[in-house]
Amino acid sequence: MKIVVTSNGTDLEAPASPVFGRCQTFIFVDTETLDFEAVTNPAAAASGGAGIQAAQFVIERGAEAVVSGNVGPNAFDVFRAADVPVYLFGEGTVRQAVEEFKAGRLPRSGSASAPDHAGMGRGHGMGRGRGMGMGMGRRVAATASREAEIAALKEMAGNLRQQLAEVLERLDKLEKGG
Fold first, then answer.
1. How far is residue 76's CA from residue 45's CA, in Å, rounded to a whole number?
2. What is the pLDDT of residues 69-94, one digit of tens each?
3. Phi and psi at residue 79, in whole multiples of 5°?
4. Residue 7's Cα: distance from chain center in Å?
């Protein structure tokens, strides 16, 4: 079976990504042979619709199942329409995600496990409310593991730090007349 695992690297030892639509890399894995192909996510930097674009991309490349930390509602709808199941995986490597999938230990998601635009907040747009309160009060589906939520929150915190640094840098330039 050909599955896709969201990743922050390019091989089976890379950390699995807690996000789907804006993950760095998709690792397509043959679960029988462990042959794999790492493909850069073409939707990662999309200004909008990353989840839908990414879902269409992995379906077109023949993924029969998706393994990710979280999948938003738009991507989930694309997978549901294509009858491609989504499985949730917490923290670990791509290889561990594949092993857990093969052993039948990953929970199958019956709905989106992340809210709209959960992977946003990478400094695009200079704020305007897009990162305000991200993660605060956010509910993760009951099937999502504690580790996946921790990883997603850590990624959001890193994105917010980057966004804050960019805002402070721009503010400093403006105050200095630049």
1. 19
2. 988 888 888 999 999 999 999 889 99
3. -65, -40
4. 8
